[in-house]
Prior knowledge:
33% of the residues lie in helices and 15% in strands. By secondary structure, it is α/β, with parallel strands linked by helices. Strand 5, helix 3 and strand 6 (106-110) form a beta-alpha-beta unit. Helix 6 packs across helix 7 (220-229). It is built from seven helices and ten strands. The protein has helices spanning 20-27, 64-77, 95-101, 119-124, 140-152, 200-218, 220-229; strands at 2-7, 32-37, 50-51, 61-62, 82-86, 106-110, 116-117, 128-130, 185-186, 189-190. It folds into two domains: 2-152, Alpha/beta knot (3-Layer(aba) Sandwich); 167-229, tRNA(m1g37)methyltransferase, domain 2 (Trp Operon Repressor, Chain A, Orthogonal Bundle).
Amino acid sequence: MRIDIISAVPELLTGPLDHSIVGRARKARxxxxxxxxxxxxxxxxxxxxxxxxxxxxxxxxxxxxxxxxCIESLKRERDYDAVIFPTPDAKVLDQQTVNKLSxxxxxxxxCGHYKxxxxxxxxxxxxxxxxxxxxxxxxGELAAMVLVDSMVRLxxxxxxxxxxxxxxxxxxxxxxxxxxxxxxxxxxxxxPEVLASGNHERxxxxxxxxxxxxxxxxxxxxxxxFINKK
Length: 230
Ligand code: 6GU
């Protein structure tokens, strides 16, 4: 998978994409992530990428020229399967959507900033719009990193234990069961006895029960879906 991320604040995108699972996946060439500074594509003498909204109103709007030029230059190099625009006014991302997106080859993620982006960019260039939840962020960069992290961890060979991504909360529509590590007794707090029993079937049943309980309690909406599907 190749991910091109376009941002007017590319500094925001270093860090989370350089370490841990995503950083290792990049080093191992399981994913190529290329970050583009939108200002470099502005023909304005001050490298401006935003302007006042027609019709008035507060805040600045991302201007079409740098975005069109940047995306067109990328498309001359290779074909893209999606141009994704993280924005709060879109369908909220879920695991099913992440699973689908992780199967794509080359994608562009366009980070908006300020009050929004010129609608013509969305109409002409963007193919997928996603929100990461019902709250507002200052820009698309944090959302882009959430999206990248959630996709990259699913790529073949990125997570060592082949099962562990499939065991994630949400992959079966339920939250995960609690996990424990050594020591078995910490300051008098002990682990559930079944986990040290060595009985894999008992462990499996216990985890299933805990996952159901936790989901029913914390996410009744997911619980109902799960029950209805059975
Ligand atoms: Cl994708 N962008 C911004 N700016 N805010 C958000 C969001 C995205 N998703 C939720 N809030």
